[in-house]
Amino acid sequence: MDNKVLKVENLSIAFGGLKAVDNLSFDIDEGEIFGLIGPNGAGKTTVFNCITQFYKPDEGDIYFRTNTGEVENLVGKKTHEIIGKGLVRTFQNIELIRELTVVENIMVGAHVEFKASLFNQFFRLKKTRQEESRIRKRAEEILDHMGLLSIKDMLVAGQPYGVLKKIELARALMLDPKLIILDEPAAGLNDSETLSLVNIIKEIKMERNCSILLIEHDMKFVNGLCDRICAINFGKLLAIGTPEEIQGNEQVQIAYLGKEDD
Ligand SMILES: Nc1ncnc2c1ncn2[C@@H]1O[C@H](COP(=O)(O)OP(=O)(O)OP(=O)(O)O)[C@@H](O)[C@H]1O
């Protein structure tokens, strides 16, 4: 695991007779932006769900270098336990609390364990003023970094989609993650929002010793951002390589880009 933050080994999971992920292995370097691509139904989301242990894999191991530097197998661990070890994810459907302000949503991120109890955690937090002010300061620093400080006291409800995506990412950063998993971060964004997100993700990589694993259909986004890409189809590995290598890979072109139809 030298220089690796995540090592997925021989991962398999089936639903009924369908092998959604089939003996898949890949690893992610510390500080790397790593993309997982594949056609619809290829198994990408299932891989994410296995890494976060939302699904229990049938076979395989998932080694993770935690925020204390130890390497642990995540298989069998609870999802909230994994978050505490420095692995956080964002969702395709943004999961923010619309009735709270931007900064309050970020502050909640410091205490995310179960989505269902976010409200409870937030209000309990208010009792400990000192802790609250430390967390608020940190939340504001992160918002400042993302160019969102001016809207910190506005409600999340009504914010443009691109801003919501940034807020969700800012919330993930509150946990000082070693690895952030992004589920289709560019989906629904216009060109300038996408560009802004690309720059933010690059900054996170540069400044935080943090790795990023993302699923994305927008190939321009993936190619412009990722250090390496893993392409899968029918749950199986097709190829791992740099964006150039993946673009030039015939198997990938046939499976993912539909080149055989050209
Ligand atoms: N909980 C589940 N129960 C049954 N089948 C599932 C479940 N989750 C995923 N699958 C199946 O596993 C396969 C892989 O699905 P998955 O959602 O991981 O693909 P994907 O690559 O993320 O697709 P997309 O790009 O469309 O989001 C699909 O055939 C899907 O129908």
TrEMBL record:
One of its GO terms (biological process) is L-isoleucine import across plasma membrane. Keywords: ATP-binding, Nucleotide-binding, Transport. The keyword Repressor does not apply. The keyword Transport applies. GO terms for cellular component: plasma membrane. Residues 6-259 form the ABC transporter domain. GO terms for molecular function: ATP binding; ATP hydrolysis activity; L-isoleucine transmembrane transporter activity; L-phenylalanine transmembrane transporter activity; L-valine transmembrane transporter activity. This is ABC transporter ATP-binding protein. It comes from Soehngenia longivitae. InterPro entries: AAA+_ATPase, ABC_AA/LPS_Transport, ABC_transporter-like_ATP-bd, BCA_ABC_TP_C, P-loop_NTPase.
